[in-house]
Amino acid sequence: MKSAVLTKLILAVSAVLSCHLSARGQDLTALATPWPAVLEHKAVACRVEDPTTLVISAPAGSNIFLSPDGGFHADNAPRVLFKPEGPFILTARLQPEFRDKWDGGVLLLYNDAGHYAKFCYEADYRNTPRIVSVVCNERGDDCNSAPVPEGAVYYRIVGSSAKESFAFYASADGRAWYLIRTFRLTKTDTLRVGFSAQSPGGAGCTVRFSEIQVERREAKDFWDGN
User: Is 145 inside a domain boundary?
Assistant: First the structure.
């Protein structure tokens, strides 16, 4: 009896360790990015389903946020990031499994803990799926934009590290884009770009990023994001 219990315990521990190791050691070389992508921070799961589809499962209590008054700071959300060279356009369809408020999927610009920008498809404080953005230049802001009840949305980031200039766009179909905001990051010397999942107040959140595309160019038209 003791042997059977011990065997079950060993198998359970092995399964947990395997999950963490596969999340941390995920081979991201198949992901369709022109620059190598790396997983930062532990994910419950992280897998490349095909070159344009990435799934990240964030653990409970995961977040990236520095409050405007500096009184709250979190920086533990799992993210898959790459370092762009020159101007770029990052596009993806975000589909989070919303369960709790503030669960969300993120297209992320990350230089360091005090300089980043989050383009979130997030369940807001009323648990309504919404376009949310955060820009942090030593202190963060928090901007709630349009609700998107459909459960999925296309996002696009257009930017350049050298110019320290970036823009967020959203779309219902991935073709017609609407400018959400444009902004500057005051520090971009180690800027990485990519994907993140968060669950600040929940038990975890899985996000599917599909139709991923990275283009090495500037937008031809600032207003329509193309």
Answer: yes
